[in-house]
Amino acid sequence: MSWLTDTLTSSIGRKVIMSLTGLFLIIFLIVHLSGNFQLLMDDGGLQFNAYAKFMTSNPLIKFTSYGLYAFILLHIIMSAVLAAKNRKARPVGYAKVKGSANSAWASRNMGILGTVILIFLVIHMRSYWYEMHWGDIPMDAAGNKDLFKVVSASFAQWWYVAIYVVSMIFLAFHLSHGFSSAFQTLGVNHKKYTPFIKGLGIVYAILIPAAFASIPLYMFFNN
Questions:
Q1: Cα→Cα distances 141→4, 36, 145, 146, 147, Å
Q2: From CA 197, how far away is CA 181, in angstroms rounded?
Q3: Is the pLDDT confidence value at 96 over 70?
Q4: What is the per-residue pLDDT for 204?
Q5: CA–CA gap between residue 107 and residue 109 (Å, rounded)
Q6: pLDDT at position 199, please?
Q7: 98, part of any domain
Q8: Using the 8-state DSSP alphabet, how is residue 91 labeled?
Q9: What is the full DSSP assignment across 94-118?
Q10: How far is Cα 72 from Cα 22, in angstroms, rounded to an integer?
């Protein structure tokens, strides 16, 4: 187990772990978005409720979900450890130098962006994941828990929609740096394809959060 200890205690090892978990979460966002789009189906939420039941009852999906939670925690822990190490390593004088000349705003504020996203995740999990497992949710016409009704009720409140949309903006900035940074950390860095990766990262960072934000906005204005 010495290799694991060395990985977790070295700066490079922590960055690799954070990059790998970040890429996994990037893929998960696409899967999660495809499920959320079922909220827009004109069937009273029956298809979304069936999807929610499948995602919370299928043994393979449940096992994958536990892995997802572990990756989220590991990503957060590695990020916090690296941020603490960086603050400790930098002298006070260096911190006073304006970073805008050498780095993007998102890269200098990944900790703040990540903290806001973490707070949103806690709210999001409490609102839906917790309710789906332990909340008193009525059944729909197909005999599934009517999670659609819970989501519709939350998206009918302007302040919740505002929190959701603002959080997606923070997520967009977080992804705009994290996407290409993850590949660079893993050694995928070459003048031929690095510009493509950076461009793809920007497109992803705009489209995915915008798609997520469009769902509560659509449901709010059409409720």
A1: 50, 20, 9, 9, 12
A2: 10
A3: no
A4: 97
A5: 6
A6: 94
A7: no
A8: -
A9: HHTS-GGGTS-HHHHTHHHHHHHHH
A10: 8
In the chain, % of residues over pLDDT 90: 58
- 85, 88, 119 from 171: Cα distances, Å: 24, 26, 12
State the pLDDT at residue 91. 57
User: Among positive and negative, which fits the CA dihedral 134, 137, 138, 141?
Assistant: negative
CATH code for the domain in which residue 66 is found: 1.20.1300.10
Tokens 């997606």: give the residue: 168
Mean pLDDT, range 1-8, rounded to an integer: 61
In angstroms, the CA 109 to CA 139 distance is 44
Task: Retrieve residue 78's tokens.
Answer: 């590695």
Calpha distance 92→202 (Å, rounded): 32
Residue 65 binned pLDDT confidence (cut-offs 50, 70, 90): confident
Name the residue range of residue 173's domain: 10-86+106-221
Unique residue bearing structure tokens 């509560």: 216
Tally of domains in the chain: 1
- When mean pLDDT is compared across 77-91, 160-174, 179-193, the lowest value belongs to 77-91
